[in-house]
Structures are given as C-alpha cells and as structure tokens.
Amino acid sequence: MKRSMAILAASVLLLSACGRDDGGDGGTGAPGVTKEACPNAVNKDNGCIYLGTISDLTVGPFKALAVPITKAQEMFWKRVNTQGGIGGYDIDVTKYVRDNKYSPETHTQVYQEIKGKVLAIAQTLGSPTTAAVIDDMRTNKVVATPASWTSLWNFEDVILESGAPYCIESMNAVDYAIETVKPKSVMAVHNPGDYGGDAAAGAKYAAETNKLTFSDVETPPGQENQGRAIEAIVKNKPDLVILTAGPTDTAVIVGEAAARGYKGRFIGTGPTWNPGLIASPAAPALKGLYWQSAPWMPFQTDTPGHKAMRDALGTGIGAPNDGYTAGWVWSYPLKAALTKAAADKDLTRDGLLKAVKSLTTVDYEGMLTGGNYAGDATTGAVRTTVIGAPDDTAPTKIKIIKEAFTGPTAKGYALSKPCFQA
C-alpha cells in the first residue's frame, strides 16, 4: 500500500509539472487565469484570462443572431489584446465556446463543463437558459454578460446587463404608438418565460397606465405553433401588437395575420427581427405593418464604438447584422470590470465581482449610456429605446424612425422587482 501511494503521489507531481491546457489557475490562484500565454496569443509575454461563451449556434430559434454576436465578441477581445491586453493578460474567448441550442437543459450541461475553466462568462444567451444556471452563478461568483434583456438581470450582481430591459422597451414602444398611431387596444403576443413574459409585463403596465384595453397571448417557439396567436390577432383586431418571439415566428405571425385581413400595428422587441426577413414572403406585410424596437442604434450608426466594431469585423462578414452590434456593445462592461479588478490586483472571482459592484458608469464609446452596477435596479436601469421600420435600403434592413428616447411611462416606472414578477 505504501508503495502504491508513493507511485500515486509521484504521478500527481508529474502531472502537475506538465503544461496546463485546461484554463485552470496556472499558479495564479483563480480559475481561468494562467501565467502561460493564451493559445495564438497576440502578446506572447502576457498571461491569459479565459472567458466562456454559451450561445445558440446551430439549431435554436436565435442562431441567426447568436452567430454574429459570438463573432463580434471574438473581435472585440482581439482588439483589446491588440491594444496590449488587460493588466498583463490577453483575453481568450474562443477556447470555451459551447452551443446551448436554446435549451435550458443543454445550457446547464455545458455551463457545468466550462465553469471551472473560465474566470467569467463573456456571453450567456437567452433568458430561460441563463435562469437555469443563475443560482449556481451566484453561489460560485461567476460573473457573466447576458445575451438577453430580461429585467431579472437588473437584480443580479453577477450579471452585467446592457441596454433597457424588455419591459421598459415595451413601455417605450406603447408610448411611441400612442404618440403616432393612437391605439385604443394593446395585445402582447409572446414566447413563454422571462423573455416574452417580461416584455408582456411592460406592455400591460403601459396599456393600463394609459387606460388602454390589454390582452395577452402566450405562444411557444416554432412556426407550426403560431396558429393560436394568429387566430387571436385576427379575431380580436387589437390596434397594437407588442410581439416578442423569434424572427421566423415573426414572419409567420405578421404575414399570416396580414393575409387574413389584420390592419393594425406590430412592434417587435429586439430579438424578433433578422435582416433575412426582408427577403421572406412576409416582407410586404412587414413593410406595411411592422416596426422594430431596440435598445441601441444599429450597425451602420456613426459613433466611435460602431466604427471600431465595423473596422474590427472587416469586410468578410457578409451582410450587416445587429447581432454584431449587440455582441460588441455587451462586451464593454466586462472589459471595464476586468480592468478595475486588474488595477486592484485581484483577478479572482471575488475580485471581479467586487469590481462589478463598484462600477457606476461604463464607456461604450458612444454606442450606449449606462453601466451603473453600484446602485439599485431602479437607479441602474437604462430606459432608452429606438424604433425602426423595415427598409430595403438600410444595411440591416431597418431604418431608424425614432432615435433614443424614454417615454413617460418608462420614465416614471419604479423597478422594485423583475417586471414579469410584479
């Protein structure tokens, strides 16, 4: 037994002396932080900070947005490395990329695979998928950037949200409709879970605040599942539909409702649109009936951040897509938190979370204002929204018709708990 134990001990020493390839602490004392350079490092003398990515990359309803989101984040951090890195470290967001297929179960599985190998998560896509692991993230102090806008994130210290949450975006959409098309009735048509539920809660609050009739229709993802929602729209003829679904479902709902005589106004929350819809059979209906709300200005906008994004992506990306814009914008707060943690000489999970909680503003290079993670949800929430309309001539096939604004409903809303729970 003693001889066996001695052999085992020697084996452990031999393994620990070998070069690391697992993104472990590498002698730094923090998961995902190594003294060794990143694979394909820009700065060979820097150590490496590994960040994970969990996105909808193959079969889920948001893959057309998720793939460019992931590419933009890769290029964002490449730019950071080209500028010297952060605190003597390059950032790697390519080694631990996983596909969640927009499934909470798959998301949980791949999160568990990588969580011990990364310092933080550069992208966790989806509200219901991220909600499936938020308890573990909180327990283990895993800071993450969400690719979603549920108002739940305004109450989570480990989440670095950017832009107005779905409910505030929907409040602004209703207020804009009141200003322009003057609806008397509002219907929320939405996916289940935090994504659709949060947007519907904002639409309901805005409708009731403005003494408009409100109705609610929950619809599951999948083009074949939209019959009930279409029937409700055609039968009840709401003046305004706040739509919160995937892009292909949007085409089915808007196109079929129009074909059956609906003449009201749709306003879709951010993820409902994809530029490919302009070439779909639903394009005439979308051009006639659909507006798009969003948390920030689109790909072609003239700000230093938008220009840096376009320069970093180059010309080989195909058609412009606001998935790129979202991925780029979402990366700024994590960069700010890592920079603060490095300055504090505490690149650990404790140190990174402490840095997050100290941020009162983030430099988005003109793409957005906000980034107050030190205050409460009401003071920290971003409340601005833009509105666009389908347009063949626009690079992302959406032309902005109302630049960043905050409507009176959202301006006065106290975010005391997540909207879908309020």
TrEMBL record:
Q: PROSITE patterns from the entry?
A: PROKAR_LIPOPROTEIN
| Record bears the keyword Signal | yes
Entry-linked Pfam families: Peripla_BP_6 (PF13458)
SUPFAM superfamilies, per this entry?
Periplasmic binding protein-like I
Task: Domain (Leucine-binding protein): give its ranges.
Answer: 49-369
Residues spanning the membrane = none
Can you tell me which family this protein belongs to?
A: Belongs to the leucine-binding protein family.
Q: What is this protein called?
A: ABC transporter substrate-binding protein
According to its UniProt entry, this protein's organism is Actinocorallia longicatena
Q: What lineage, starting at the top, does this entry show? A: Bacteria, Bacillati, Actinomycetota, Actinomycetes, Streptosporangiales
